[in-house]
Amino acid sequence: MKKDLYINGEWISAESGKYFTVYNPATQDGLAEVADADEADTHKAIQAAYEAFPMWSKKVASERAELLRNVYDKMIAAKDELAQIMTQEQGKSLQEARGEIQYAADFVRWYSEEAYRVYGETIPASHIDKRILVRKEPVGVVASITPWNFPAAMITRKIAPALAVGCTVIIKPAALTPLTACRIVELFADAGVPKGVINLVTTTKSKSIGDVMLSDPRIRKVTFTGSTEVGKEIMNKASHTMKNLSLELGGHAPSIILDDADLADAAEQVVHNKFRNAGQTCICTNRIYVQKKIATDFIRIFTEKVAQLKLGNGLDQGVDIGPLINKDAVLKVEKHIEDACEKGASLTIGGKRSSLGELFYEPTVLTNVTDDMLIQHEETFGPVVSIQTIASDEEAVQKANDTPFGLAAYLYTNDIGRAIRVSDSLEYGIVGINDGAPSAAQAPFGGYKESGIGREGGRIGLDAFVETKYISLRSTHLSS
Questions:
Q1: Are residues 174 and 200 in contact, defined by beta-carbon separation less than 8 angstroms?
Q2: Where is the Aldehyde dehydrogenase domain (predicted)?
Q3: How far is the C-alpha of 186 from the C-alpha of 179, rounded, in Å?
Q4: Residue 478: pLDDT above 70?
Q5: How far apart are CA 334 and CA 361, in angstroms?
Q6: How much is the pLDDT for 333?
Q7: What per-residue confidence (pLDDT) applies to 1?
Q8: Around 303, how many Cα atoms within 13 Å sit in the side-chain half-sphere?
């Protein structure tokens, strides 16, 4: 099976004629051959989006809204098919994949409704013969660069608001998981999106393609989800053409378990939060801080729940955790565990590769963790979590904030006063209180510090794709 680029309303091969293979991480089987775009293909996509922008930006809100709603309906109708594609190329369980498709579709539905609410305003002027008007206008051509861990939701969270306000888009999905993107773009095409409004560029040449996008003045906005290291490089290169940026970058999420928490519920929430997608999410728990008084009980309950997780091929029934995405991911997990154990950490469960295959790693829990261990400072992006005891709420906050990252944090307590005090002190863009699954299409998603710039999702998510124009209107027929 071959998949081509989608440029200016047509499925076309790359100019070089080259394709790359997409593999199933669970079986290492080849799934499809995908067009490998280069700089010439990227320029073609940019030109198509640039030429389509005047037409699309002038559409009335209802036209854009109706198209997005049509796409939502098509995504829901194709949910099982999309989930199957995602599990095959990414590895997560089929149940998780279905959940992501629903989440991805929710962004399309939400912004189909928000398309009607791109409001301007009038401001009282300083003179009787003037009127001050404020308009919100689409920023222009948007380049959407998406990661492999959420190959559907990260696309729709970016392009649905962009399309809703009148921008045109170029999607560059991760080379590891382009098939989900291909199918989603097919659904947009089936829904009747005009040519040039959506363009898909699949490639193994991420850096060179990214450099084209960042240097071309016709692209006015770049929205990226990925590592902080790459995000900083994008920010630097985008400065040369002063592009508008949205950067959703790395995380190092803490979960704080206070001594009045419901331990069974907290353990259940953290297990699902940590081990979803085999720990390959930017908002999953990396560090657990539990108060000493309840530490023994929490560790026992938590470990028992982790032991119940089923590792396997995501297509098999009952599987909770699939494979890691590639060998580098496995090596990083092993590096963090080896470093921690050498420095005195204890394994309560896991700690080794599974016999299922080289990319399968057992869910792992580390205790007796200290601050000098790599796992306390680096995002692991795998199925391993550390547990450290703390004496007070203040110590928990200090340790949680002792990181350059600030994407998501979690807090478990039954005291609303403590919940407010501690959450107010956490330097994070997202805080889940007794909630390990805070993401929702209607909520703003983003982080503090080196976890990114801007917010995606919710009403605020529209702001990232508009420019504010101030018009001062003076009438020659009015006088004082």
A1: no
A2: 11-471
A3: 11
A4: no
A5: 9
A6: 98
A7: 87
A8: 17
Catalytic site residue from 89, 114, 167, 282: 282
What is the rounded CA–CA span in Å between residue 203 and residue 223?
Answer: 17
Of 451, 442, 466, nearest in space to 404 by CA: 451
In the chain, domain spans = 2-249+451-470, 253-433
Residue pair 336/287 in contact (Cβ under 8 Å)? The answer is: no
Tokens at residue 227, please?
A: 């590592």
What does the alpha-carbon distance between residue 279 and residue 341 come to, in Å, rounded to a whole number? 20
Buried b (16+ CB within 10 A) or exposed e, 77-108: ebbeebbbbbbbbbbbbbebbbbbbbbbbbbb
Active site residue 10: no
Give φ, ψ of 128 to 5 degrees: -65, -25
Using one digit for the tens of pLDDT, what is the confidence trace for 118-137?
999 999 999 999 999 999 99
392 to 1, 121, 292, 409, 412: CA distances (angstroms): 57, 48, 9, 17, 14
Judge: domain 2-249+451-470, CATH 3.40.50.300.
no
CA 68 to chain CA mean position, Å: 20
Q: Of the listed 96, 100, 114, 248, which one is catalytic?
A: 248
pLDDT at 480 over 60: no
DSSP H helix total and E strand total for the chain: 13, 23
Question: Which is nearest to 97 in space by CA: 115, 79, 111?
Answer: 79
Q: How far apart are CA 343 and CA 349, in angstroms?
A: 18
- DSSP SS3 for 142: strand
Strands 384-390 and 364-367: parallel
Tokens of 362: 């057992």
Is 450 among the catalytic positions? no
Tokens 């995908």 locate to: 34
Query: Percent helix, strand and coil across the chain, each rounded to 5?
Result: 40, 25, 35
Pairwise CA distance, residues 379 & 374, whole Å: 9
Q: Which residue has the tokens 């950490």?
A: 345
